[in-house]
Write a structure and sequence with these properties.
Elements lengths: L8 E3 L4 E6 L7 H12 L3 E4 L9 H4 L4 H17 L4 E7 L1 H12 L4 E5 L8 H19 L3 H12 L5 H13 L9 E6 L4 H13 L5 E6 L12 H14 L3
Parallel strand pairs: 2-3, 2-4, 4-5, 5-6, 6-7
Antiparallel strand pairs: 1-3
Amino acid sequence: MKVVAPKPFTYKEGERAVLLLHGFTGSTIDVKGLGRVLRQAGFTCHAPLYTGHGGEAEVLIGTSPEEWWQDAQDGFRYLQEQGYGKIAVAGVSLGGTYALRLAMMHPVSGMISMCAPTRGKSRFDLAARVIDYAERFKTFEGKQEELRKEEMDRLAQRDMSFFDELQSFIDDTGNRLSAIKDPTLILQGAKDASLYKESAFRIHDEILSEEKELKWYGESGHIITLDQERQQVYEDVKDFLLRLDW
């Protein structure tokens, strides 16, 4: 079955703009539901798709964290070039780390971090994430088991040394949290892995924003924008953005 790759999206509504950033091995599907709710509330939303994401894992591992980070920066620049002077940044998982980093570099109207890591996972864990993604994607494509196994075996032999670069970027971002002073909302799934829950507390404790809040979702795991409490996540993000002094 031919899989239609996700695409970047832009919803143009009002003068207040929100950059939406998805996670590693994810796609703009991670943030599309949130974007629709924010659009209905009058916010312009833009979500870039990172290079290599949204398709085969073999393509993904042929790209680099430098390219993905550049895509996030280009998304922010796109909103600036479109004339938006009031921009908030929001991201889930790695997208949350990118949102943190952007808030360190630019004045933003608000920053929303959802299950963002501030410490890099091990190379083994990251490789397992790619392998799991590849298995699910190939199954969704409808590939026969024998072919799927052959492709998975070849994938497991591929060079994934780019994980070191990704780990360094996440660690470096975690060490600069005190540079963030803009209003911040931190959202975290209670059923997520310990690394992410520890990161949520760290973000809340180390940023220097006068307005900051940490909210937990008891029935949610890592990608809370797609989990069973996603509608509450959307409403909480919307309410936070509506409260900001744009």
